[in-house]
Write a structure and sequence with these properties.
The structure holds 2 protein chains of 2 kinds. In chain A, helix 1 (about 5-20) packs across helix 3. The relative contact order of chain A is 0.23. Chain A is α+β, with helices and mostly antiparallel strands. Chain A has 3 helices and 4 strands, in the order αβαββαβ. By secondary structure, chain B is of the alpha+beta class. Chain B has 2 domains: about 20-105, no CATH class; about 110-225, Cation efflux protein, cytoplasmic domain (Alpha-Beta Plaits), CATH 3.30.70.1350. Chain B has a 4-stranded mixed sheet with strand order 3-4-5-6, covered by helices on one side. In chain B, strands 1-2 form a two-stranded antiparallel ribbon. In chain B, about 30% of the residues are buried. Chains A and B meet through helix 3 and strand 4 of A and helix 6, strand 2, helix 7 and helix 8 of B.
Chain lengths: ~120, ~230
């Protein structure tokens, strides 16, 4: 069970990223500095950079060890002309649908920019 | 499904004591001269540093801009020292790193989108950019600094307080102009963003003199204050 957690976390991150990216109004998920460094490492040592990878940039998945509940934190940039809160609501709905096999998931969506 | 209304990022709330949002952001962003670092960087990014004499005269503001330039130079140098990296790639990497550093370090406070029980946020810088652009598009108005914060600092998921500085022409009375700006802010916060507006302050900090008239120093102070605290 414990050994599967990192793999499950990556799967959830990829599912969330894929779902969020397809929502109209989402320009791109925002990569953080950590993602950037991972990309940099990937050039030299692909083995070390295995994990959530490029597809899950802008998504962080954590787990409450006490309850087993997952928390997905999504940061994204929206296109101008789309109402920000409508985009975040659609992202939340799409993300929850993409990870519906997990019984307890909460999603936070943060708009970090508008282009 | 648990829906947390806690605006702290998960990794921070686990690794350190939760601080009130207000004090944390205020401590991070304000320079010794009272200016906000994010405003100084915004002006530098937009090439508007020269528009504000304070930014070049003030040692704190010019040091902050110089730090940003220095960081960009350091990244460029590092790229140049890497063998086999074409110049175009190095420039692209530098630009990307600088963008990320700005976003990562100074996104501004998160503001609540939608209803209080929703865990949806927009960083202040993004919302402020939309409001500034909307106010700027009004005739006879140029938008300056725009700050957005919770109306009640103890309630980070509550309605927000917008404070925008404008430079205005004298084509109409300043109270009328302030009303027009507030109406525009109310429209954009609801229709384009989805943040709940509690109050909007419009500060007329200067007069647009498109005919080179020196109108602003008649009373020795061009800092007019209009519409404080009005709910828009």
């Amino acid at each position: 069970m414990a050994a599967d957690t990192p793999r499950l976390r990556d799967r959830l991150a990829e599912a969330a990223a894929g779902a969020a990216q397809d929502v109209p109004g989402v320009a791109f998920l925002r990569p953080g500095v950590v993602d950037l460094l991972r990309t940099r490492v990937a050039d030299r040592a692909p083995r070390l950079a295995a994990g959530t990878g490029a597809r899950a940039q802008g998504v962080r998945v954590s787990r409450d060890e006490a309850t087993g509940a997952w928390h997905i934190d999504i940061r994204l940039v929206v296109h101008r002309g789309h109402r920000a809160v409508d985009v975040t609501r659609a992202v939340q709905t799409a993300t929850l649908a993409a990870v519906r096999d997990e019984p307890s998931v909460s999603v936070r969506v943060t708009v970090t920019g508008v282009v | 499904m648990a829906m947390s209304a806690n605006p702290d990022r998960p990794e921070e709330s686990r690794s350190q004591e939760i601080q009130p949002e207000e004090s944390r952001y205020e401590e991070e962003e304000r320079l010794a001269c009272g200016r906000l670092l994010s405003d100084v960087w915004d002006a530098w990014d937009a090439g508007r540093t020269a528009d504000d004499p304070h930014l070049t005269a003030c040692p704190h503001c010019s040091a902050a801009s110089a730090e940003l330039t220095g960081l960009g130079d350091a990244v460029r140098r590092t790229c140049a020292e890497e063998p086999g990296v074409p110049e175009a790639t190095a420039a692209a990497v530098t630009a990307r790193v600088m963008d990320l550093v700005r976003l990562e370090l100074r996104p501004g406070r998160p503001l609540p989108l939608g209803e209080p029980e929703e865990d949806h946020w927009i960083v202040e810088a993004a919302a402020a950019r939309l409001l500034r652009a909307a106010v700027d598009a009004l005739p006879g108005v140029r938008a300056g600094s725009c700050r957005i914060a919770p109306l009640d600092p103890a309630d980070p998921t509550g309605p927000v307080h917008v404070r925008v500085e404008v430079v205005a022409s004298l084509d109409r009375s300043l109270p009328d102009l302030a009303d027009a700006v507030r109406a525009r802010i109310a429209e954009v916060t609801d229709r384009d963003i989805g943040i709940r507006l509690g109050a909007a302050d419009v500060l007329v900090v200067d007069i647009l003199d498109d005919e080179e008239e020196d109108e602003e120093d008649e009373d020795g102070d061009a800092y007019g204050r209009h519409g404080t605290g009005g709910a828009a």
